[in-house]
Specification:
Layout lengths: L19 E5 L10 H9 L2 E4 L5 H4 L6 E4 L11 H13 L4 E5 L9 H10 L4 E4 L4 H8 L13 E5 L13 H7 L2 E5 L5 H10 L7 E6 L7 E6 L3 H8 L5 E5 L6 H4 L1 H5 L15
Parallel strand pairs: 1-4, 1-5, 2-3, 2-4, 6-7
Antiparallel strand pairs: 7-10, 8-9, 8-10
Helix pairs in contact: 6-7
This protein binds S-adenosyl-L-homocysteine.
């Protein structure tokens, strides 16, 4: 490992005892981890990790104690306050703590909340961004989140709120009207309600949509559907979270850019000319 990824010994940040680094592990594929996160994995005394962090990534911290802080929508999970308190306690006991989250720690990951508590407790922190599922996961399905002439705007939105219900503070009509590409995290449960609101606000039910399950992992599955059929197709295919949902004309680009299928030598799908607006 150390030969495979030679991190220069000088100039890389050193974890001090009593500090907490909040890092993103990326969407799944261990190769999408950043070098800063790898540098932290090698130094940490304790790694507090979430459900979506792949096992292979944790194996890069053989010296560390591993603490599971599993949080998955709808499944039993450690409560957020307990996890944050655990980080504070570990740091106050002089540990070098790595808090490792799926994707990016500041994107629907409560990283900001944990960081606020740590700062308030006087604990030194460092933030290590990661590749978020809504960008990297879609890229693995051959979907660019922006594309000149097709989608110049993208919205990242959560499909449920802190209580696990459909989010009440999201203005779906405004998103429908203002965002060409809509990327929904944690959206499987309420996609029926969400799609109905987007359609009521003027989005075309025939608009292409995709669902990427376990993106960037060996279990990745991609469902091609439309805004109007999304809920029924997800149910028919029996798809389960974690899934990223995306809606927009840009999803069509996947027909030509599904690079994993291309790499396998599968017959490329006929490229459909995009209605590029110039
Ligand atoms: N901080 C994470 C998001 C955490 S919220 C990030 O930046 O990616 C958890 C949600 O993220 C899941 O319900 C799902 O919508 C999405 N997600 C995370 N990893 C995923 C993956 N590998 N494939 C599909 N969706 C994923």
């Amino acid at each position: 490992m150390s030969n495979m990824f030679p991190l220069p010994s000088a100039n890389w940040p050193v974890m001090s005892p009593g500090s907490v680094w909040l890092a993103g592990a990326g969407p799944g594929d261990p190769g999408l981890l950043t070098l800063h996160a790898l540098n932290a994995l090698r130094q940490a005394d304790v790694v507090v990790y979430d459900a979506l962090v792949q096992r292979q990534i944790l194996e890069w911290a053989p010296q560390a104690e591993l603490v599971y802080a599993g949080k998955r929508g709808g499944k039993p999970s450690a409560c957020q306050a307990d996890i944050t308190q655990r980080l504070v306690d570990l740091a106050q006991r002089g540990k070098r703590v790595l808090r490792l989250k799926g994707g990016d720690p500041f994107v629907f990951g409560r990283g900001g909340e944990e960081a606020q508590v740590l700062v308030a407790a006087g604990i030194p922190i460092r933030i290590i961004p990661g590749i978020t599922a809504g960008i990297g996961g879609l890229a693995y399905a051959g979907i660019p989140v922006t594309h000149r002439g097709v989608n110049q705007s993208v919205t990242f939105v959560t499909g449920h709120d802190a209580t696990g219900e459909a989010p009440t503070q999201v203005d779906w009509a405004a998103i429908a009207q203002g965002s060409q590409m809509i990327v929904i995290y944690m959206g499987v449960k309420y996609i029926g309600k969400i799609a109905a609101q987007l359609i009521a606000a003027g989005r075309n039910p025939e608009e292409p949509a995709a669902v990427v399950v376990s993106a960037t992992t060996a279990q990745q599955q991609v469902l091609d559907t439309t805004l109007g059929r999304m809920e029924a197709d997800i149910a028919a295919a029996g798809l389960e979270p974690p899934a990223i949902l995306c809606i927009g004309e840009g999803v069509r680009l996947r027909e030509g850019l599904n690079w994993q299928a291309l790499a396998l030598g599968l017959a490329p799908v006929q490229h459909q000319a995009m209605a590029a607006a110039g």
